[in-house]
Give the backbone structure.
Amino acid sequence: MQGIGGVLFENMIYDEDGNPLATTFLDYLIPTAPEVPDIEVGHIVTLAPGQTGFKGMGEGGAIAAPPCLANAIHDALRHLGVHPTAFPLGPSQLLTMMNEAKQA
């Protein structure tokens, strides 16, 4: 969910003095269960190489989702001249990119 949120929802907006305009989750959008597809978990046990045995556990979802979503959006909209290069890629950003591509 974190990776999906970073691409489609999350966007820090500041005023002219550098103060964040979204200071609560009412203003700062994050994905919730209805916005996320069903996720199938594959569990693989691997030994950690370090002496303590510690390793990460949640990074995979945050790392894989952004390029997958960006490539899917690019594939869907490239015939319109849209080439996303920055996040977020929410509806308003995509509409802006489509309008800019149309005017180019």
Summary: The chain has one domain: 2-37+59-103. The chain is about 40% helix and 0% strand. The radius of gyration is 18 Å.
